[in-house]
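Q: Sequence in, structure out?
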Amino acid sequence: MISFDVDKNNDLFIGEHGNLSICRDEKATMRVCEHYVRAKRGEMLHKFDKGMPFWSSVFGANADLALFESVFRERMREISEVIEIVSFSAQLIDNTVKYLAVIRTQYGVVEVNNGRV
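A: Exactly. Output:
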């Protein structure tokens, strides 16, 4: 797999050769996983039914972490390089949902969390 790489602000950046930076295999799969979970349901023009339902799962008075996990797992299954979600944990800390997922891909095991950015 090949994907554009992003910096700590989730922005594309110019690599050492003067072109948009790309990443491959394990790192690329991790980036795709991160982007799949960051995409809000309804924001993609041609895929309104895809994305995370943040408003119904974690934004609001009562965060539904079980729903968030279920949709997270569903989204990861859409990525052909993902073999399985080894573990997933989420908790509400100071009105912010923090999650960590360990994902086995065809390239190796990666961690995806909302703390990277």
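The first helix runs from residue 25 to 38.
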